């Protein structure tokens, strides 16, 4: 009986230790931005999201914009790899030429680099209030 319990415990530990999940952290989870457009001059804003790999393995990062701001956002490096414990600023640029209120997000996908398996998605929500002359959208 005792051998069976020990064997069951060892089997449980092997199974649990072989299962892991990818996790991630980002800074700037919410951004409230203001800009002003001028005559024939669009508003231009440069920002970044701090992306952190808190895993023991390298992970692949993908950034994808979403919402009604996605047509105005440029992400110079939408994919990169982070080593264990590494941080990186994921830069993006917003260029908008019409006054209005815009909302959306940049989704940050964390996935295993060398293995297949589930990942996780974190989002940075962006609210943009653009003032200036012209019709507000």
How would you characterize the overall build of this protein?
This protein is mainly β and 137 residues long. The chain has one helix at 2-18, and strands spanning 25-26, 30-37, 43-52, 59-67, 73-74, 79-82, 87-96, 100-112, 120-132. It has a 5-stranded mixed beta sheet, with no helix packed on it. Strands 1-3-7-5 form a 4-stranded antiparallel beta sheet, with no helix packed on it.
How do the strands and helices of this protein lay out in sequence?
Blueprint: H1 2-18, E1 25-26, E2 30-37, E3 43-52, E4 59-67, E5 73-74, E6 79-82, E7 87-96, E8 100-112, E9 120-132
Parallel strand pairs: 2-9
Antiparallel strand pairs: 1-3, 3-7, 4-6, 4-8, 5-7, 8-9
Q: What's the rounded overall pLDDT mean?
A: 86
Rg, Å, rounded: 21 Å
The backbone outline, from C-alpha atoms, is elongated
Low-confidence stretches are: none
User: What share of the residues lie within helices?
Assistant: 10-25%
Content-based structural category: mainly beta
Strand order of the largest sheet: 2-9-8-4-6
N-to-C terminal Cα separation, in Å?
Answer: 73 Å
Q: Say how many strands there are.
A: 9
The sequence of SSEs as H and E is HEEEEEEEEE
Count of helical segments? 1
Strand content: over 45%
Tell me about the largest β-sheet: 5 strands, mixed
């Amino acid at each position: 009986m005792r051998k069976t319990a020990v064997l069951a415990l060892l089997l449980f530990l092997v199974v649990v230790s072989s299962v892991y999940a990818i996790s991630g952290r980002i800074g700037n989870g919410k951004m409230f931005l203001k800009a002003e457009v001028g005559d024939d001059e669009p508003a231009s804003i440069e920002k970044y999201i701090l992306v952190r790999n808190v895993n023991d393995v390298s992970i692949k990062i993908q950034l994808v914009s979403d919402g009604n701001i996605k047509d105005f956002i440029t992400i110079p490096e939408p994919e990169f790899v982070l080593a264990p414990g590494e941080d990186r600023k994921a830069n993006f640029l917003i260029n908008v030429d019409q006054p209005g209120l815009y909302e959306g997000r940049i989704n940050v996908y964390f996935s295993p680099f060398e293995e297949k398996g589930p990942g996780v998605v974190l989002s940075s929500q962006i609210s943009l209030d653009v003032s200036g002359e012209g019709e507000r959208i």
